[in-house]
Write a structure and sequence with these properties.
It is built from six helices and six strands; from the N terminus they run βαββαααβαβαβ. It is an alpha/beta fold. The protein has a single domain, classed as 3-Layer(aba) Sandwich (Rossmann fold). It is globular, with a radius of gyration of 15 Å.
Length: 152
């Protein structure tokens, strides 16, 4: 099977799941918005999509002058890749299953909508202490075919 992981960046939490899938003979792709030098790319090299021009413009307008962080809170919550490039890459990979990390940002929500349009199986990873939250998110986005996994 072909798996596509979607996350703002390749987090070390993905390494074990990705390695298990690759060792099992599955094809795994990862789409990220950005990368850090401290991340481990030994199993799979992510495809860095970057931020769209609109996303960058909105971030500049919303950023506070005091923000000295690498990524601002606005950028992490509302940043998204160039939409047409994302769709083109998505269609090229043509995944059987799309694994989306969290529902707290625009990139994840955009991916869920595109996944639904292309009728892909969707898995949403939500870090939560409560299963009720995952049921709420699944019903909120009307994703009856999806499975929500709770990580603690």
């Amino acid at each position: 099977m072909k798996f596509l992981f979607i996350a703002p960046r390749l987090h070390s939490n993905f390494q074990y799941q990705v390695k298990a899938l690759v060792d099992g003979g599955h094809q795994v792709n990862i789409f990220c918005l950005y990368s850090f030098s401290s991340e481990d790319y030994s199993v799979v090299q992510p495809r860095i999509l970057g931020y769209s021009r609109l996303s960058n413009l909105l971030n500049k307008l919303a950023a506070r002058k005091k923000d000295k962080l690498t990524k601002t809170r606005f950028e992490l919550n509302y940043g998204f890749p160039p939409i047409f490039n994302f769709i083109r890459q998505f269609r090229r990979v043509n995944p059987d299953v799309v694994v989306v990390k969290n529902l707290a940002n625009a990139y994840s929500i955009m991916t869920l909508m595109i996944g639904r349009i292309f009728r892909k199986k969707l898995i949403v990873l939500i870090k939560s202490n409560s299963v009720i939250v995952t049921k709420y998110h699944a019903s909120r986005f009307n994703l009856p075919d999806s499975r929500c996994l709770v990580t603690q």
